[in-house]
Amino acid sequence: MLSLPFLLCTALAFAASALALAVPRAVSGFPDPVVDPFYSQPSNIASYSLGQIIDTRATVSTFASPSLEKSYQIKFRSQNAQKQPIAAVTTVLVPTKKTLSSSGQASMLSFQNFQDSVTLSCSPSWAYVANSGSPAALAANLEAPIVNGWALDQGYYVSIPDHEGPSSSFISGTNAGHIVLDGIRAALTSEGLSTKTQIGMYGYSGGANAGVFASSLAPSYAKELNVVGVSLGGTPVSPQDTFYQLNGGFASGLAGAGAVGIASAYPDVQQYLDTHINAKGKPVIAGLKSDGTCVGQVVAEYGFINFFDLITPNQDFLLVAPARKALAKETLLQTQASYTVPVPKHPRFIYHALTDELVPFNSSQLYIQEQCAGGADIRSIVYPVGEHITTEILGIPSALAFLGSAFAGTLGSVACGTIIPDTPLGSAASVKVLGSARDSALQKAKSDGSWNL
Signal sequence span per UniProt (predicted)? Predict the structure, then answer.
């Protein structure tokens, strides 16, 4: 029996292809990021400080509503996994009403989209320009209108980083964490907001990988930021474990994209793949990296591939020295890491399905155990039944309830690892958090896979 994620991603792939035929590939002033000079790397990038603004431009947003005053993109300085300077992009949403905390501080949500692909044309910033023709627009605008619409209604600013960066380094959490945090810095500067501004983060799946690394890096890399809460669901804390679960299955394209993404962040891994990729593998890798191959196509067109067969000699290339070294830096499991994994003290909410077919449940639970042993503040929900995508839908009310309480300063304290009550769709509590329209939209998404708000 085909799973809902496979059917949804297949539908997204066909719909994206139809959209590409029906809509011009570039709205005026916003061409494909592959050729758009706004995404280019300045020759003097090293002269900028982390988070410093390089350029800005206004956009017409897919999140248009009475709660949105304006939207725009910021190009800013960050650094990649090798700590080399890069220019990255974030999309900023400014609320019409600006809510202040009891201490007089503004609030900002950093929303990490699950880009899950390895081409710049799938960048969230392009997908969130109205009528851009982005091949990622459908997938990028599934849960995003729910979460970001909620944030704007609350009076929170929003930053949506292109967390894979200019090299599209999918699943390199170190790279992504830097970009998320520097994107927040740039957004705060642009809006004239204090570093005391309350920062929350949201991410699911590939977006949660970026979010969990940003959370982990924040106390050292961006210690000036006031992080009050981080919500993470279906979180890949170990690229190695996730690759093994995906490889050869219906969503094996995500494993291949992950290998390509890690290689783009680690030159030694790239050199190994370039040297050992065989004739069978070259068109697969080229296809994954081709313009317009976004998450729907990655899953629908590159399923049931054993990526170890694309290397000569055929072998588990995660075990070769360059990959082992990179993966030991790109895991948040202390049992796999070559460094001391940080234990941030800000509150976190982590949810996962026991039966998640894409991202390993056991790895996520081990992460919680290791973090709690170090004194973390984590509360969680385990969904006993649910696929990866259905669990995202189920978890949104609880995730936003958590973030709302974090911004309001009403979370309270719990023992680390505490399983908290779910906020079920259709309940009075869910409607109170989301509003009736968003709650109904998520119920419909759970029922038939449609996400129309």
Answer: 1-20
Which is catalytic among the residues 163, 178, 346, 388?
A: 388
Task: Verify that 125 and 234 share a domain, yes or no.
Answer: yes
Is 162 known to be catalytic?
no
424 beta partners: none
Task: Tell me: pLDDT of 128 over 70.
Answer: yes
Number of H helices, E strands in the chain: 16, 10
Q: Print the domain residue range for 418.
A: 4-238+336-422
Quick one: 346 and 292 in the same domain?
no
Q: Can you tell me the mean pLDDT for 141-148?
A: 96
205 is a catalytic site residue:
yes
Sheet with strand 198-204: strands edge to edge = 53-59, 68-79, 85-95, 157-161, 107-112, 198-204, 226-233, 348-353, 378-383, 418-419
pLDDT band at 452 (very low <50, low <70, confident <90, very high): confident
Q: Give the domain CATH number at 24.
A: 3.40.50.1820
Mean pLDDT (whole number) for 396-422? 97
Q: Is the domain of 130 the same as that of 231?
A: yes
Catalytic residue among 356, 377, 422, 439: 356
Give Cα separations from 16 to 13, 51, 93, 135, 140 (angstroms). Answer: 5, 33, 25, 6, 11
Give 280-323 as a DSSP string: THHHHHHHHHSTT--HHHHHHHS-S--GGGGBSS---GGGSHHH
Task: Return the bridge partners of 322, or none.
Answer: none
Q: Dihedral sign for Cα 206, 126, 70, 56, please.
A: positive
- Tally the domains of the chain: 2
Residue 210's pLDDT band (boundaries 50, 70, 90)? very high
Catalytic pick from 168, 205, 231, 238? 205
Stretch 222-246: mean pLDDT, rounded?
98
- Indicate if 356 belongs to the active site: yes
Residue 452 belongs to a domain: no
Adjacent-strand bridge partners of 39: none
Whether 219 and 342 have beta carbons less than 8 Å apart is answered as yes
Q: Using one digit for the tens of pLDDT, what is the confidence trace for 326-357?
A: 999 999 999 999 999 999 999 999 999 999 99
324 and 382 assigned to the same domain:
no
Strands 157-161 and 107-112: parallel
The pLDDT of residue 125 is above 80: yes
* CA 88/CA 367 separation, integer angstroms: 29
